[in-house]
Structures are given as C-alpha cells and as structure tokens.
Amino acid sequence: MGRRGGTVWCGFVLTMGTVGASIVGTPRIVTPCVDVADGVCLPYCSNGNVMLHTPTVNDTTAMLAWLAAGGRGIDSAWSYDKTGPAQRDTGLGIQQSGVPRHEIFVTTKIPCGATNAEVMKLIQYDLDQLLLKQVDLLLIHHPNSPTCNSTDQISLTWEAMQGALAQGLTRSIGVSNFKTSDLTALAAAPTTKITPAVNQILLHVGVVDTVTIAYCEERGIVVMAYSPLGHPDGGGQPVYELPAVLKIATAHNVTGAQVALKWSVQHGYPYVTASPTLEYDREDLDLFRFNLTAAEMATLDAIHE
Question: pTM of this prediction?
Fold first, then answer.
C-alpha cells in the first residue's frame, strides 16, 4: 500500500457495472484511495446518509446508485438514526448491491460513552443497523457534545475503541471535529496507545482550519473533509456558486461542484458528501480526468468566508 497517507488506486476497473437491479449498465468510475492504517485504504470519495439532507430520497436507493456508479466509500453515524432508519437503509443498500464487502469502505461515528460497556453497546448498535460484522473506520463523532463533555470521557471512549479495533469490530479508528487542543489532550491520555488514523472535519473552499490540518499532517493523521461543497445550513454560500469556482469550472468544462471536490482531493483530503441522485454520483466521482493548475489552486486557497 505504500507509506501511511500515500495515495494508491483502489483497483476497480472501468467497466459496465451490473450492480443494482434498477441501474444495470451504469459506467463505473475508477477512484483512488489513501492509506490510513496498515492495509486500510480510504477512498477519496465517500457518500453519506442522504435522508438527512434530502428526506424524499431513501438511503437504500441512494446507496445502490452510489455503488453502481463506482462509489466505494460510505459514511454513516449513530446519531443519524435520530431522524429515521438511516443506518439500516444504508446497510440494506450495501447488502442488496451485489458488490463484494471487501470492495466497500464503511465509516461510522459514535458519541462518547460513560463506561467501556456503554461504548461497546454503541459500536454494536451501529454494526447491527448496518448489517455488518465489521466497519472499516470508526470515529468519535464530536468532542464537544453532551456525552463528550470531558477529556476523561473522550479518553475512556478512545480506550474502548482501541479494544474494538483489537477485537476486529473495526479496521481503523479515528475522530471527527477534533481541534488541535482535543487531539493534544487525547494524545496525552495515559490509555492512548494508538494515534487516530483520520480526523474528519468541516473543510471546503473558503473554510480551512490550517492549524488543525498542520497538526494532523505532522502526526500522520489523514484529514477528511465533510461538507466539501459548503455548509449552507450554517449560513454560508454553496461553494459551487462562487464566481471564482464557476470561472475555473468553465475553463475545464466541468461543474462548480467538481471543482470544489477536486480542490479537496488535490490537496490530499478525502471527502464525504451526500449525493441523492445518480447524476450527482457520477459528477462526484469523475474528478480524476482533470487537474487544477497551481494558479487555480492558489485562487481557491485565497477564498475566505
């Protein structure tokens, strides 16, 4: 696989896929992945639970389309089940797709637990809902939440996750929404034996936490972007509507969304989005036939919300 953090190609061939009974003949797109742990390669492109953002789209249907298009990264979380059976529908999509399990990379996230047993119960819940015996990446969802309100709770949860890794319930472990201070505290905990493989953070053109990213890169922690097309719920403008992004898109004959995602990938940040349609799936995956120039990357880097 190469060194940790190195990019390799996932090994899927461009072919006429037969995955998903309703989408036979959908062209599959070759996508690369990045090493996050020994023998664990995270696809640069992941799709998350769609119903959170598009309630009219069932996650089973969305995941079948994603996998048929060639997507192999799937992102979920314990908390997403608060609004419906997001994880079970995702698990059904994986199950019904016909894609071999070893080709699919599944990430899920849990809150903190008060005891080791409680953390293990959270992990087992996610596995049961996803209809899986093992996920590929398990993350602490947020360090500043009602259940993760102290360094002790975070370190206790991390200790249990290290145990889950040893038991084979997950192939790698990481964190989400962690700032430098959170990562430093976790590293200093006496029970921490394993460095997080991934830190999934809010990251897109215009919103870049350079301090946290630098900390992660120095320690071999792969930075993964969520909301790579912008975070309109937080009051920001969609990245794909920014004039500078649209100008670059025109130059490459691609969409604004593809430019935004390419910026992330070209910086070395795998991403997770929530694509509700096959058309968007194809766009999100079709990022590897063009490259942004150094000047274009500099233009995008200079944008600040």
Answer: 0.90
